[in-house]
Amino acid sequence: MGRALTRTAAEFPQLTLAGAIASPHSNALGRDAGELAGIEPLGLAVSADLAGALQNADVAIDFSLPEASGAHLAACRASGIPLLIGTTGLAQALGEADLAQAAQHIALLVASNTSLGVTLLTELVRHAAAALPVEFDVEILETHHRMKRDAPSGTALTLARTVADARGIAPAEALAGARSARSGPRRPGEVGFAVVRGGDVVGEHDVRFLGPGEQLVLGHRATDRAIFARGALTAALWLARQPAGRYEMRDIFV
Ligand SMILES: NC(=O)c1ccc[n+]([C@@H]2O[C@H](COP(=O)([O-])OP(=O)(O)OC[C@H]3O[C@@H](n4cnc5c(N)ncnc54)[C@H](OP(=O)(O)O)[C@@H]3O)[C@@H](O)[C@H]2O)c1
Fold first, then answer.
1. Could you read off the pLDDT of 200-241 as tens digits, one per residue?
2. What is the pLDDT of residue 189?
3. Three-state SS annotation for the chain
4. Residues 13, 237 contacting (CB under 8 angstroms)
5. Catalytic annotation on 144?
6. Closest listed residue to residue 188, CA positions, set 123, 122, 133, 125
7. Is the CB of 47 under 6 A from ligand 1?
8. Max Cα separation, the chain?
9. 127 labelled catalytic
10. What is the Cα–Cα distance from 125 to 225, expressed in whole angstroms?
């Protein structure tokens, strides 16, 4: 993601890269961030000195490891710099209380999917799930490349939890998982998943609302992994102008 962010930053003329940070043991230390990202040299060496880089920054973006994000959050808080965390699996290392406490001092946005399209899809699904009668069954179909390890995807799970939340159903009760192992009719209120794996598909999600006599299908197609970098940079530019507080990707559309 660091390389993708460096490459995609060139699409944002209002943005200047103030630092490129890796771990203190990284092979990348001292190398030019642009060359590493496969573009022209930027005259910016990869460094482990986050505090130094923050002196010239208006906002920071963290895509690293859960165990590293805590130190990055502390450094941003100490420098008063807004932070977007895209690192997933944060709960292993950083609790909600840590995030809430930091958000009293800096603008903090945490997002497990920074795609603008998926962010909007989630909001549309939230509205549809709340507006349509519960007779509209919800099924989620997702397709990814053959190398993907987890199923259903984290985005599919987020979409299912969004449906459950909008309908006031506990996610543990609503998520139906794979149906192949069990027979019987569909349970009222459950959200089912269908998973396809193959080829080099970056990511496809369809949320189907199946009602009496009609269907509504809301979907998203990812064709390039740069969408996560583009969304993160768009959100970071927005976050740099916000007061201290806790934010989500959907807030940038308000
Ligand atoms: N929110 C989203 O939409 C989204 C999209 C894609 C990925 N992600 C998440 O973003 C995270 C990174 O993904 P990735 O694919 O870029 O993984 P990756 O290729 O393993 O990169 C992790 C990076 O973190 C750096 N790092 C590790 N420890 C560090 C430390 N203590 N201080 C500073 N940098 C450190 C590593 O640099 P060195 O090893 O060189 O030190 C490496 O560049 C994962 O949690 C992934 O799930 C989120």
1. 999 999 999 999 999 999 999 999 989 999 999 999 999 999
2. 84
3. CHHHHHHHHCCCCCCCCCCCECCCCCCCCCCEHHHHCCCCCCCCECECCHHHHHCCCCCEEECCCHHHHHHHHHHHHHHCCCEEECCCCHHHCCCHHHHHHHCCCCEEEECCCCCHHHHHHHHHHHHHHHHCCCCCEEEEEEEECCCCCCCCCHHHHHHHHHHHHHCCCCHHHHEEECCCCCCCCCCCCCEEEEEEECCCCCEEEEEEEEECCEEEEEEEEECCCHHHHHHHHHHHHHHCCCCCEEECHHHHHC
4. no
5. yes
6. 133
7. no
8. 63
9. no
10. 22
Q: Count the Cβ atoms, other than its own, within 10 Å of residue 67.
A: 13
Q: Tell me the CATH number for domain 2-110+226-253.
A: 3.40.50.720
Burial state string for 152-183 with b = 16 or more CB within 10 A and e = fewer than 16: bbebbbbbbbbbbebbebeeeebbbeeeeeee
pLDDT tens, residue by residue, 116-159 = 999 999 999 999 999 999 999 999 999 999 988 778 888 898 89
How is the chain split into domains, by residue range?
Answer: 2-110+226-253, 116-222
Whole-number Cα distances in Å, 9 to 35, 37, 52, 78? 14, 11, 20, 25
Q: Which of 25, 72, 127, 144 is catalytic?
A: 144
Active-site residue (options: 72, 127, 148, 205): 148
CATH architecture of 116-222: 2-Layer Sandwich (3.30)
Which mutation among 64, 110, 150 tests ligand 1's pocket best, with the greatest number of atoms within 8 A of CB? 64
